[in-house]
Amino acid sequence: MIRNKEFRLLLLWNCFAIVLITVILFIFDVNKISFVLVLGVLLLVDIVTYFYEKRRYREIAKLSEMISKVLNGDDGIDFTSCNEGELAILSSEISKMTSNLRDKSNKLLEDKVELANSIYDISHQLRTPLTSMNIVTDMLSSDDLIEEKRHEHVRELKSSLKRIDWLIESLLKISKIDAKTAKFEIKEIRMSDLIKKSLEDFRIVMELKDISLNYKEEDFSLNLDLDWSVEAIANLIKNCLEHTEAGGSLTIDTSDNAIYSQILVKDSGEGFVKKDIPYLFDRFYKGENASKNSIGIGLALARSVIVAQNGTIQASNIYNHETGEVLGACFDVRFYKSVV
């Protein structure tokens, strides 16, 4: 305590006051009893002040030690031991600050883990087509390769390049949405335009696989970014078509009410494995029934786009209520007209 400048100054002033009072008492010839009484009061005040300050500085030292422990990574520190006066207020504020810093530290750690996992997943997804491309390139360099095989390998090479390009584009789009730098031009669009544009790239595939389309056009307006929304719905349609056998069907139902606009995309495939459903929209997650060329990014992109436009998406199976047989899979998309 003596090392504390504030306490030294207080002690100095008390000594000065005692000397001054002593001098005054002697000058005015005050009796000894009065002198002793005044001196005793001053000494008592000094003793009380000393012990009060000592207790206060002990609490400050304790608080300082607790802060030091927190800085060294000890998360079990309780700052509520100071329960009165300014120190209680200070310890309460420090407790809030450390709690806030701890939350931010945990969030940063989670982000680092997620980044590491994402880098691993991306490298894994790129490795497969790159390995294939290396093999195909070696084959193409062979002088004995017949022309028909050469054309086949070139097609494989183009397919691998297209896959890499799609992966990179999808990841960039998700990153922009996550960073809130993606530009959504929200304006009034027609539901029929959204569905028609989403189906455009799949007409030939559906014709080749003899997949029938069940879509009853219900034309109403909703406020969305058309291009981004087409990207999302098209990814759902693509997923359904990949899991629908030749001769199957794709069903799209749309509806509108005072709360939300709904799009149901359904197929007649094998449906989802139950344990996969909670993770279907996670990046790079591939379910048990995923196709061999699946990357696991399409549904994650669809969810990001939908959520960014005040929407929700759920996946479920369609059942025959009498037999319990799975009749297909269903994506339920809802765009809410107010914040949910």
From TrEMBL:
Domain Histidine kinase: 121-339
Native source species: Lachnospira pectinoschiza
Entries under PANTHER family matching the protein: HISTIDINE KINASE (PTHR45528:SF8), SENSOR HISTIDINE KINASE CPXA (PTHR45528)
Topology relative to the membrane: Multi-pass membrane protein
Transmembrane parts of this sequence: 7-27, 33-52
InterPro entries: HATPase_C_sf, HATPase_dom, His_kinase_dom, HisK_dim/P_dom, HisK_dim/P_sf, HssS/ArlS-like, Sig_transdc_His_kin-like_C
A GO molecular function held by the record: phosphorelay sensor kinase activity
Reaction(s) this enzyme catalyzes, per UniProt: ATP + protein L-histidine = ADP + protein N-phospho-L-histidine
Protein name from the UniProt record: histidine kinase
